[in-house]
Amino acid sequence: MFEPRKAAVGRPLYTPEERIRRDGSPWTIVQGVLAPLQLLAFLVSLWLVLRFLQTGEGAEAATLSVIVKTLFLYAIMVTGAIWEKRVFGVWLFAPSFYWEDVVSMVVIALHTAYLYAFLTDALGVREQLLLALVAYASYVINALQFFYKLRLARREPSSVSHLNSSARTWVTER
User: Fold this and answer.
1) Residue 149 is part of which domain span?
2) Contacts with 128 (C-beta within 8 Å, 6 or more apart), sequence order
3) What pLDDT, in 10s, does the model give residues 146-156?
4) Which terminus of the chain has a lower count of CB atoms within 10 Å, N or C?
5) Residue 103 falls inside a structural domain
6) What is the pLDDT of residues 158-169, one digit of tens each?
7) Can you give the pTM of this predicted structure?
8) Domain contains 1
9) How many domains does the chain have?
10) What is the per-residue pLDDT for 153?
């Protein structure tokens, strides 16, 4: 169904045009703000969940923290899809971020399963929070993927100098 475009060895993460669109998009800033906020929500929630699982105290705080973390996840996923459309021309599964998006779908599915279990009482509180830990493990894997890509992007030379100003104007207006 979805088939990633083969990334050529040595292919840059962004073409010069994509880099210009990335740098000019307000969604890049939104992602840059939401990502650390989600990480902070994750760290606080992880502490609260582990505290509950260890002591049996603070179920409400742990539950609320997982819900807040999940809402941040939904926000970053929606705005990330908008960012991907703006930069790469597709809502999801752009070749440069194909596997990150695949893992993101697993992360979303697990967080959504947690919300379902919470809203329907399909699992007890302890089991819900254990499910949240599984979702969090997938989030950590996905976050590491994105940190790796961020590092790659920072190492890439800014190769837009060969674009003339009219090409830059055309790309940024799209």
Assistant:
1) 16-173
2) 63, 66, 114, 117, 118
3) 888 888 888 87
4) N
5) yes
6) 654 444 443 443
7) 0.80
8) no
9) 1
10) 80
In a domain, 29, yes or no: yes
One DSSP character per residue, the chain reads: ---PPPPPTT--SS-HHHHHHHHH-HHHHHHHHHHHHHHHHHHHHHHHHHHHHHHS--HHHHHHHHHHHHHHHHHHHHHHHHHHHHHHSSSS--GGGHHHHHHHHHHHHHHHHHHHHHHHT-S-HHHHHHHHHHHHHHHHHHHHHHHHHHHHHHHS--TTTTS-HHHHHHHHH-
Q: For the segment 81-136, what is each residue's pLDDT rounded down to a tens digit?
A: 999 999 999 999 999 889 999 999 999 999 999 999 999 999 999 999 999 999 99
In degrees to the nearest 10, what's the CA dihedral of 166, 92, 15, 31? 80
- Sorted by sequence, the CB contacts under 8 Å of residue 130 that are 6+ apart come out as 53
Percent of the chain, pLDDT > 90? 71
- Domain membership of residue 7 (yes or no) is no
Question: Phi then psi for 160, rounded to 5 degrees?
Answer: -90, 0
